[in-house]
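no rush on this but wanted to send it before i forget. what follows is a protein written twice so to speak, once as letters and once as structure tokens for the fold. mainly i need to know what kind of three dimensional shape the backbone takes. thanks a lot i owe you, the record is right below.
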Amino acid sequence: METETSTPNVGANLLRVHRAVTRAFDVAIGAGQQFAAYGWPDDNTREGYLNYVRSLISFLRGHHLGEDDLLFPYFRDKLPDVPYEQLGREHHALEALLVKLEGNLAGEEPPGSTQSLAELLGGLQAARGLWHPHIRLEEEHLSAEILGPLLPAEEHVRLGRASAEHSQAHAGPDYLVVPFFLYNLEQGDRAALVRIMPPIVTQELVPHVWLDKWASMKPFLLG
């Protein structure tokens, strides 16, 4: 398994994204089951949970668009045996579930009510069921070990930044999605990302300017 490293590697960044999303699915489902069984402890927790799920939906959509629009076309001639069409179909299947999840959050039932929470949990569980076999297939063909020697270091940096910018352009709001991503990662993986992110984001916006907007998610994030 790829560990945090100072050597730029697009495959390592993909693995970090997968780790963050995997944790987010587990946390969203586990916490949601607790709230369904015992109710919301307070309004702030309810707001934080719903923002956490909204961030998961938006972040995952941005990630998949970055792969479909940028990464997969880039690697198609370099790694022709990767099952790009299958991975793309799986993205579409997951997107259909994300749209349903958004409907649960915006439906006639108030978000977080007993009925809407049950529907939300069903959608999250269905999406997680597709997610795990999808990332296993992707990591088999686009691992850090495969991608590392394929490109020079400067191209890993360029492609990684372009992919992150593309994904971010299709996910938001930044004040929720950026801290959601960073704090669904263990410290080693988080530090590797912080090294390549603009300092104003990690040193000013996330911990200070945006803090009041994402602080309600803290119970569901890593410290």
User: Anything to note?
Assistant: Confidence is low (pLDDT under 50) at residues 1-5.
